[in-house]
């Protein structure tokens, strides 16, 4: 993936987009993060800032090792920035205690990973129901929502199967159902189509976008694929630790 130099005004530098705080699903302000490598510190993020609005699907592009996964971990409160602030749905994530972060993630964030991360000892329906059980919903509501998500991803017939009996595309559809079953405000997807063939990629991507939009949530989608990125409402590029926003014509394979 490379970025062509766009025409005048096509690229907006970070922070140039008007940020309506009341409309912000995610607001990142001057995030910095470095990791120690021997006697030296390797900077991954250098004052990264952006706003993702409610109901918006945003694709995040960047080279391998550019810090895309680090950025997702900071948004989710899995990692802590050296400096800067993360606000998700009006909640200052960087100020929450560890128990508060756990409750916040369980209620408000859904995760989709490249390698599915389904629990191999649980059946499909049990994997989907897990976020609802962690949020202590009534058993009847858990069953109703689980059946509804199985229908949404068209895998009702696989409800009692174990993950290793499913194809890669089917496993990712179950992972999407699990990520969305508790109706999160924000879905973080880290290369969700990177381990799939073209047909499964198209199916999974359409499913994830349509279900997130139906629920009114926001989606931040990390990808290496410009074709996948163009399906989003907006593009962000992470390069040299900073976020910028090109138009879609500036992205090439």
TrEMBL record:
Which terms are listed as keywords in the entry?
A: ATP-binding, Nucleotide-binding, Transport
Name a single GO cellular component.
Answer: plasma membrane
Sequence segments annotated as region (Disordered): 1-21
Name of a matching Pfam family: ABC_tran
What SUPFAM superfamilies does this protein map onto?
P-loop containing nucleoside triphosphate hydrolases (SSF52540)
UniProt keyword Disulfide bond, yes or no: no
**InterPro entries for this protein:** AAA+_ATPase, ABC_transporter-like_ATP-bd, ABC_transporter-like_CS, ABC_transpr_LolD-like, MacB-like_ATP-bd, P-loop_NTPase
One GO term in the molecular function aspect is: transmembrane transporter activity
Enumerate the spans annotated as ABC transporter domain. Answer: 26-253
- PANTHER family linked to this entry: ABC TRANSPORTER RELATED, IMPORT ATP-BINDING PROTEIN
Recorded family membership: Belongs to the ABC transporter superfamily. Macrolide exporter (TC 3.A.1.122) family.
Name the UniProt record assigns to this protein = ABC transporter ATP-binding protein
Organism expressing this protein natively:
Sedimenticola thiotaurini
């Amino acid at each position: 993936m490379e970025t062509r130099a766009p025409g005048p005004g096509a690229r907006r530098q970070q922070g140039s987009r008007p940020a309506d705080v009341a409309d912000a699903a995610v607001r990142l302000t001057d995030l910095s993060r470095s990791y120690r490598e021997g006697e030296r510190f390797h900077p991954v993020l250098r004052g990264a800032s952006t706003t993702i609005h409610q109901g918006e699907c945003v694709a995040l592009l960047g080279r391998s090792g550019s810090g895309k996964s680090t950025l997702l971990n900071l948004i989710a409160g899995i990692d802590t920035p050296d400096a800067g602030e993360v606000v998700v749905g009006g909640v200052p994530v960087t100020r929450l205690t560890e128990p508060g972060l756990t409750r916040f993630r369980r209620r408000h964030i859904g995760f989709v990973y490249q390698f599915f991360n389904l629990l191999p000892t649980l059946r499909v329906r049990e994997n989907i129901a897990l976020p609802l059980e962690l949020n202590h919903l009534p058993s009847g509501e858990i069953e109703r929502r689980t059946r509804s998500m199985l229908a949404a991803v068209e895998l009702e017939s696989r409800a009692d199967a174990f993950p290793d009996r499913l194809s890669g595309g089917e496993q990712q559809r179950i992972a999407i159902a699990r990520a969305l079953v508790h109706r999160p405000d924000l879905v973080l997807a880290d290369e969700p189509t990177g381990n799939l063939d073209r047909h499964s990629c198209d199916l999974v991507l359409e499913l994830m976008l349509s279900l997130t939009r139906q629920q009114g949530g926001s989606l931040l989608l990390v990808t290496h694929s410009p074709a996948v990125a163009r399906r989003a409402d907006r593009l962000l590029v992470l390069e040299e630790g900073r976020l910028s926003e090109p138009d879609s014509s500036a992205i090439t394979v």
